[in-house]
């Protein structure tokens, strides 16, 4: 029986391990930390329960498909329910109407889960915008279906796997040479509505001004496929995936941190993987190795220099996804003016994204987001309490200090209280923060980033970091740095894709 080692148990690692085991490999998963799921980590304290990483359950059919691939039913592991409203947005009056007059339209709204009701919201802000939204979503849906059929579940062995007949025939409708933001502006004029259509690029680790318009397919996911919540949160999702993998025969070893990959021979093959454990140093060997750990860390810290596929210059040029300053907050009262997902777009939109993607800096007044699972799942907090995850996207590589975290926390609380009209500080009974230095410590994240590699044109599909080492014969990659892309669903699919490649190349 052939053997496989998987380094890391994030979505990509669990998925790759399960698919390889299904294909007949004896699979061992080595996890640095004490928990499964990587960033899909659970924080439980004082009766509160928080997802510390992903909080948006999108593309539910792809998750169901993953379970079906192993003869399982997702609903036997956890339930999902559609979040309605999908989200609420506070805009303030930062750019509407923009000439000193008072806003003529409400500076906050909730986006209904029903697409027709969402069109009505658009129409109320801009005459004709409801019909324009439908036309916009029609093109987004076509892109989504094309991408799922031609790009997502695909390995890239050459440029012709990307520039193929199907891509050429559909090129006009893919808007390859247009930006996400530019395409939104063709359809919608009102600045609030544009922001609603542009916010999903955060999940891509990019900026609407430089993200390919092909990715407007994200709006089809948002408006048509919907936002869902898995009962028990994302920690329950990854635990369920682990159970499926174990049924396939995967062995998981926690608190097993890989400290080196030894490569030898004229065929440049991984001979052993060195691991630090509470019991001491160990070595493991296998026919194939899949790295679901941070790609940069594997390349620069675990591999000898002569076996690295990506140069230091390319890493320096890489467009990374953001990091975050996050707070996990428990209140002994219910929050009255918020939805399960709530955005604060009451600051300068372009200035914030310039500070994240162009001129890395701590911005004075950032945008931020609240995830309040206890609105949908009462088990997330004690009775009468609220569990709140507050997230601020920030540039990777910044100097993370307690003082800076506290400045962002105080400012966010000021704005939350002002815009909601609810005094909350006196009800705060639990608080914990998480930011760049924590991502580096827990995940060896390059520059403390949270979401891996950004989804720019030249970091997409064939141009993205490959899921196979160019210099080591039996070393492969899964997760958010490689194909098909960033996010939990794409990372999960990456495990499927890399397994297929391994079976094709290694047997």
Set out the fold topology:
Elements (H helix, E strand, L loop, with lengths): L2 E5 L3 H12 L3 E5 L11 E4 L2 E4 L8 H9 L11 E3 L4 E4 L17 E4 L3 H11 L3 H24 L12 H5 L1 H4 L5 H8 L3 H8 L2 H4 L12 H9 L2 E3 L2 H15 L3 E3 L3 E8 L4 E9 L2 E5 L3 E4 L3 H8 L9 H6 L5 E9 L9 E4 L4 H9 L10 E4 L14 E9 L7 H19 L7 E7 L1 H8 L31 E3 L10 H19 L1
Parallel strand pairs: 1-2, 1-13, 2-9, 6-15, 13-19
Antiparallel strand pairs: 3-4, 5-8, 6-7, 10-11, 11-12, 14-17, 14-18, 15-16, 16-17
Helix pairs in contact: 1-11, 1-17, 3-4, 4-10
Question: Which key features would you list for this structure?
Answer:
507 residues; alpha/beta; FAD/NAD(P)-binding domain; seven-stranded mixed beta sheet; globular
Folded structure, characterized:
The chain is α/β, with parallel strands linked by helices. Among the domains are: 3-41 and 233-318 and 454-506, FAD/NAD(P)-binding domain; 114-226, no CATH class. It has 17 helices and 19 strands. The protein has a seven-stranded mixed β-sheet with strand order 7-6-15-16-17-14-18. Helix 1 packs parallel to helix 17 (488-506) and helix 4 packs across helix 10. It is globular. Residues 96-102 have low confidence and may be disordered.
């Amino acid at each position: 029986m052939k053997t496989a080692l998987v380094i890391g148990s994030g979505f990509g690692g669990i998925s790759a391990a399960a698919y390889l085991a299904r294909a007949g490999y004896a699979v061992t998963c080595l996890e640095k930390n004490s928990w499964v799921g990587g960033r899909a980590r659970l924080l439980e304290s004082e009766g509160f329960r928080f997802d510390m990483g992903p909080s948006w359950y999108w593309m539910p059919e792809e998750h169901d498909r993953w379970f079906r691939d192993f003869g399982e039913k997702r609903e036997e592991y956890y339930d999902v329910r559609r979040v309605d409203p999908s989200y609420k947005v506070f805009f303030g009056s930062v750019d509407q109407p923009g000439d000193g007059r008072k806003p003529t339209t409400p500076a906050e709204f909730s986006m209904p889960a029903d697409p027709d009701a969402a069109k009505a919201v658009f129409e109320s802000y801009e005459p004709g915008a409801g019909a324009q939204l439908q036309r916009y979503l029609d093109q987004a849906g076509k892109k989504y279906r094309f991408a799922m059929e031609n790009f997502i579940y695909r390995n890239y062995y050459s440029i012709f796997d990307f520039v193929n007949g199907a891509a050429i025939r559909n090129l006009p409708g893919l808007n390859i040479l247009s930006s996400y933001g530019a395409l939104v502006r063709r359809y919608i004029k009102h600045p609030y509505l544009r922001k609603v259509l542009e916010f999903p690029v955060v999940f891509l680790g990019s900026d609407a001004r430089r993200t390919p318009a092909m990715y407007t397919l994200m709006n089809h996911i948002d408006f048509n496929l919907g936002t869902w919540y898995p009962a028990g949160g994302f920690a329950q999702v990854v635990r369920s995936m682990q159970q499926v993998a174990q049924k396939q025969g995967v062995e998981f070893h926690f608190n097993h941190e890989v400290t080196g990959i030894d490569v030898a021979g004229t065929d440049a093959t991984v001979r052993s993987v060195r691991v630090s454990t509470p019991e001491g140093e160990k070595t493991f060997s296998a026919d194939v190795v899949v790295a679901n750990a941070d790609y940069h860390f594997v390349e620069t810290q675990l591999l000898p220099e002569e076996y690295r596929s990506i140069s230091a210059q390319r890493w320096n040029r890489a467009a990374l996804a953001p990091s975050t300053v996050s707070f996990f907050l428990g209140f002994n009262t219910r929050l009255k003016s918020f939805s399960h997902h709530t955005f604060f777009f009451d600051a300068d939109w372009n200035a914030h994204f310039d500070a994240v993607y162009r001129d890395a800096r701590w911005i004075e007044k950032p945008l931020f987001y609240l995830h309040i699972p206890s609105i949908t799942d009462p088990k997330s907090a004690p009775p009468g309490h609220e569990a709140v995850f507050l997230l601020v996207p920030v540039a990777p590589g910044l100097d993370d200090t307690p003082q800076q975290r506290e400045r962002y926390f105080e400012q966010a609380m000021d704005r939350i209280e002002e815009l909601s009209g609810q005094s909350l500080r006196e009800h705060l009974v639990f608080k914990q923060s998480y930011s760049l230095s924590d991502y580096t410590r827990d995940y060896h994240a390059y520059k403390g980033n949270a979401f891996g590699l950004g989804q720019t044109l030249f970091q997409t599909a064939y141009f993205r970091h490959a899921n196979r080492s160019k210099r080591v014969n039996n070393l492969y990659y899964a997760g958010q740095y490689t194909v098909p892309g960033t996010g939990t669903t794409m990372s999960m699919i990456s495990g499927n894709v890399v397994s297929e490649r391994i079976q094709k190349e290694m047997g």
